[in-house]
Amino acid sequence: MGHRLSNCAHQLCVPLKFGAVVAQWHTISIDDLNVEPDEVLVVNDLFNFRTLMDESVVTDRSSPRDVVLSNIAKMKPDVFVQGIINGSYGTFFLSRFREALFYHSAMFDMLDATMPRESRLRLVLERDIFGWVALNAIACEGEDRLERGETYKQWQIRNRRAGLRQLPLNRESVNMVRNIVKNQYHKDFVIEEDQQWLLQGWKGRILLAHSMWVADGASSGW
Predict the structure, then answer these.
(1) What pairs with residue 178 in β-bridges?
(2) Is-contact 140 178, C-beta < 8 A?
(3) First to last CA, the chain
(4) 153-186 pLDDT, tens digit each
(5) Which of 5, 30, 202, 218 has its CA 20 to 30 A from that of 125?
(6) CA nearest 74: which of 29, 40, 27?
(7) Distance between CA 39 and CA 45 in Å, rounded?
(8) pLDDT class for 61, splitting at 50, 70, 90?
(9) Which long-range contacts (CB under 8 A, 24 or more apart) does 182-188 make?
(10) Tens digit of each residue's pLDDT (9 = 90 or more) over 109-130
(11) Distance of alpha carbon 20 from alpha carbon 1, whole angstroms
């Protein structure tokens, strides 16, 4: 990744210093990032928080996902951009099975409507990504279960509890996304808003959600 970013930056004549941090998420602090005093700090995550252990597994201390959110708040980033998969599997087998069924039924229906069945990319998505996620969420217990999704409303509570303040969505950006989806994508794709989250879905079921945050008491130009 570092080489690809460096090549891209070189082509665009943009100065870049890449540094990888090899550590567990919940151990990373602002000191590990080597941020200069006048640098803009952006924390960006797309769909990875769902694999952090929660309080159903970690009972003797704060859960890793709460620790990571708290550490992000302590970093005081100019903006924290969070994208989540909207689905709460819960602890018990039946609830996990039901949520996985509903979520992946929507995903496979979307693939049926937008990709040919003989597509190799679709095969990889169904077999290596969606299939593995469903299997792990349903069949695995304890620390073996990596898929621990939550709804955007649950993440909203977690983020606020960790000392983060939500930023309003940019109206111009939201309108641009709506127009692109309306004019260039399948009619059953959904773009909605709720509580300053930008929601993506299929046939009325919300599948993904995105939001922006800063630390409590911090200002932001975003």
Answers:
(1) none
(2) no
(3) 27
(4) 999 999 999 999 999 999 999 999 999 999 999 9
(5) 5
(6) 29
(7) 19
(8) confident
(9) 186/110, 186/113, 186/114, 188/110, 188/113
(10) 999 999 999 999 999 999 999 9
(11) 9
